[in-house]
Amino acid sequence: MSFTVAIIGRPNVGKSTLFNRLIGRKLAIVHDMPGVTRDRRSAPASLLGLEFEVIDTAGLEVSGPETLEGRMRQQTERALAEADVALFLIDGRAGLTPMDEHFAQLLRRQKTPVILVANKCEGKAGDQGMYESYGLGLGDPIPLSAEHGLGLGDLLAALLPYS
Ligand code: GDP
Ligand code: MG
């Protein structure tokens, strides 16, 4: 029996970069510039031999009366409903932002288990954000570099109980 992992978090924290690494191909579009249309996608993934379904979330496409925040919230809630566990990414280099806090509040109030992940933690530049993220009330962060493929063993260990 496979399980489903959702990758959530504010724009630009590296969700699609992690998604691409886990699925092993360039299905999700990674952009340096925020505000680009991106759809939610799911695909079969494997992490050091552990297999699961992974969902990437975006939600930057705003149409009609929808707000960016409303759309992101809707996408996140849909992904959480389908997932057995969620990876909540923050950007260790940027540190915590009000939008991270906003997401964290939403996540603390729902029932899907959440693994806190501090991305962009290659080198020392990510330490500050990683330490700050202890304060989110979502447990100990796992330092990761989705771009450089660092921290994947610890991520595997965190996901195993849900497999
Ligand atoms: P998303 O909006 O959360 O899906 O973020 P993206 O995956 O599109 O990445 C946003 C930016 O962060 C891109 O410029 C990525 O190359 C960069 N990025 C992603 N992961 C890492 C990482 O581990 N380290 C660093 N330094 N940059 C990263
Ligand atoms: Mg993305």
TrEMBL record:
Record GO terms (molecular function): GTP binding
Residues of the full protein shown: 1 to 163 of 468
Key word GTP-binding present: yes
Protein name: GTPase Der
Oligomeric form and interacting partners: Associates with the 50S ribosomal subunit.
Keyword annotations of the record: GTP-binding, Nucleotide-binding, Repeat, Ribosome biogenesis
Function statement: GTPase that plays an essential role in the late steps of ribosome biogenesis.
Highest taxon above the source species: Bacteria
Family: Belongs to the TRAFAC class TrmE-Era-EngA-EngB-Septin-like GTPase superfamily. EngA (Der) GTPase family.
GO-annotated biological processes: ribosome biogenesis
Binding residues for GTP 1: 9-16, 56-60, 119-122
Domain EngA-type G positions: 3-163
